[in-house]
Amino acid sequence: MIRDKSANKKAGKAPARPPKGIIAVAPPSFRRERALIKRGVWPVAGCDEAGRGPLAGPVVAAAVVLDPKRIPKGIDDSKRLTAERREELFEEICATSSFAVAFASPARIDRDNILRASLWALARAVRALPEMPQHVFVDGRDKIDAPCDCDAVIGGDGIVMSIAAASIIAKVTRDRLMSALALDCPGYGFESHKGYAVPEHREALDRLGPSMYHRRFFAPVVAARRKHYPETVAETVEPDLFTVDSEINSGIPATI
């Protein structure tokens, strides 16, 4: 059937277009996973992390194997979703998928640097899955040390559906954890900013000094240590590869 392109004009309807000034962004797809499944490769996992940039708290990594027959609708990069929608999808993904999380503590971040600690946590999450995948997609440019084939996908949380699902699990898990840490360590506002370097957090850090949950060698924390605990600033560590200014219980199988 050949469509009459003038039909809309005759009906007085203009072709649907995104509102002016808004760029339409395609949601993640299951295309890459499905291509592997057709070749007999299964399970296929996606993994992502949350919490590289904050001054406090762990990095949380998640690995997810979506059920091709029960993929929740609306899965997207966690950064594109509201907190309420992330919570809803978190529950749906947990109910329909195979998944696991892993944590890289502030101490590990201090020792290894944020990049290595993140990659370590991602690998641990994959290894913690109930069944080892035959292939894993990981968000970013770096592959992980997993006993299966691995593809690193830059911007993967907005491209590959399994990675997007993992980004939601990691983000919600970490947000819940930081809210719990706020009860144990009041005054810093962890429940609102989740440890990121917002002005409110920097002010509390300068006023109170670092807590046990802060990453000791991130620049604003070093400055606060210099003010409150000058005797500890002489400690040395391999320089971190990330700067801050660049940018509980959840019932999840976890490894630390």
Q: Major beta sheet, specifics?
A: 6 strands, mixed
Uncertain residue segments = 1-11, 238-252
Number of strands: 6
Q: Please trace the helix and strand order, writing H or E for each element.
A: HHEEHEHHEEHHHHE
Could you tell me the strand content as a percent range?
A: 5-15%
Strand order of the largest sheet: 5-4-1-2-3-6
- Output the number of helix runs: 9
Q: In angstroms, what separates the terminal alpha carbons? A: 58 Å
Global mean pLDDT: 87
- How would you describe the shape? elongated
Structural category is alpha/beta
Helical residue percent? Answer: 25-40%
List keywords for this structure.
alpha/beta; 256 residues; single chain
Task: Please characterize this protein's 3D structure.
By secondary structure, this protein is α/β, with parallel strands linked by helices. About 35% of the residues lie in helices and about 15% in strands. It is built from nine helices and six strands, in the order ααββαβααββααααβ. It has a six-stranded mixed β-sheet with strand order 5-4-1-2-3-6, with helices on both faces. A hairpin with an 8-residue loop joins β1 (about 45-50) and β2. α3 (about 85-95) packs across α6 (about 160-185) and α8 (about 200-210) packs parallel to α9 (about 220-230). Residues about 1-10 and about 240-250 have low confidence and may be disordered.
